[in-house]
């Protein structure tokens, strides 16, 4: 079958994080400016290559003051570290449509190994519009990946205390990445 090259479709790809706030609720944030690619050979998963970049300057939680605080040096320090990256290649099939994908996640210039629990959502041939013309069909595939990280591992350590020894922000943060990828046409002569 051979390897295939897929590019993330940024308009339909995003990342979300969830952190406990004030010990009683959860705050969710999202990133819509996510770009990346996957090169995969289903017969040789050990040759898989995944690269993704998130524009951390565009964090959105629905609260402008909180978004500004998240962009500051207290949290993401986007002035010095505007992007996050994930580079991976270790893929293990754990079910018919379930995989564990291990790679290096970089936040604030700190790189740590992370394992994403990925569910493959399937493929479909769809229209492909450019400049008002349907150039399709193009094949799309969907994936959702989930993991939990300790934000302190990446230098995201701001916090404050609340009553009875509680904290404003939890150490553990749940991360979900939804990817819609488009199969790239083979390049002539490659």
Keywords:
single chain; 190 residues; mainly beta; Lipocalin; 8-stranded antiparallel beta barrel; 4% helix
Describe the structure.
Belongs to the UPF0312 family. Pfam families: YceI. This is Polyisoprenoid-binding protein YceI. With 190 residues, the protein is mainly beta. The chain has one domain: Lipid/polyisoprenoid-binding, YceI-like (Lipocalin), CATH 2.40.128.110. The chain is 4% helix and 57% strand. The protein is globular and about 60 Å long. 19% of the residues are buried.
Summed up:
The chain is mainly beta and 190 residues long. It has one helix spanning 64-71, and strands spanning 4-8, 14-21, 25-31, 34-40, 49-55, 83-93, 98-107, 110-126, 129-130, 133-134, 138-150, 161-162, 166-167, 169-183. It has one domain: Beta Barrel (Lipocalin).
Q: So how many helices? A: 1
What would you call the structural class?
Answer: mainly beta
- Reported CATH architecture: Beta Barrel
Integer count of domains: 1
How much helix, percentage-wise, in residues? under 10%
- Strand residues, percent: over 45%
How do the SSEs run, as a string of H and E?
A: EEEEEHEEEEEEEEE
From the N-terminal CA to the C-terminal CA, the straight-line distance is 15 Å
Strands, count? 14
Poorly predicted regions: none
Q: Identify the strand order in the major beta sheet.
A: 1-4-5-6-7-8-11-14
The Cα radius of gyration reads 18 Å
Name the overall outline: globular
Main sheet properties: 8 strands, antiparallel, barrel
């Amino acid at each position: 079958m051979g390897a295939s090259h897929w590019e993330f479709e940024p308009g339909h790809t995003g990342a979300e994080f969830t952190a406990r706030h004030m010990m009683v609720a959860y705050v969710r944030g999202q990133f819509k400016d996510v770009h990346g690619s996957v090169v995969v050979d289903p017969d040789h998963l050990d040759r898989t290559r995944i690269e993704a970049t998130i524009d951390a300057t565009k964090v959105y939680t629905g609260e402008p003051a909180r978004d500004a605080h998240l962009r500051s040096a207290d949290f993401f320090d986007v002035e010095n570290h505007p992007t996050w990256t994930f580079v991976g290649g270790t893929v293990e099939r754990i079910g018919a449509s379930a995989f564990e994908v291990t790679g290096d996640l970089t936040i604030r210039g700190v790189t740590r190994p992370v394992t994403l629990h990925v569910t493959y959502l399937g493929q479909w041939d769809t229209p492909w519009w450019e400049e008002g013309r349907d150039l399709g069909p193009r094949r799309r595939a969907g994936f959702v990946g989930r993991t939990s990280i300790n934000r302190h591992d990446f230098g995201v350590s701001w916090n404050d205390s609340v009553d009875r020894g509680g904290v404003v922000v939890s150490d553990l943060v749940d991360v979900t990445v939804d990817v819609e990828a488009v199969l790239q046409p083979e390049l002539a002569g490659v």
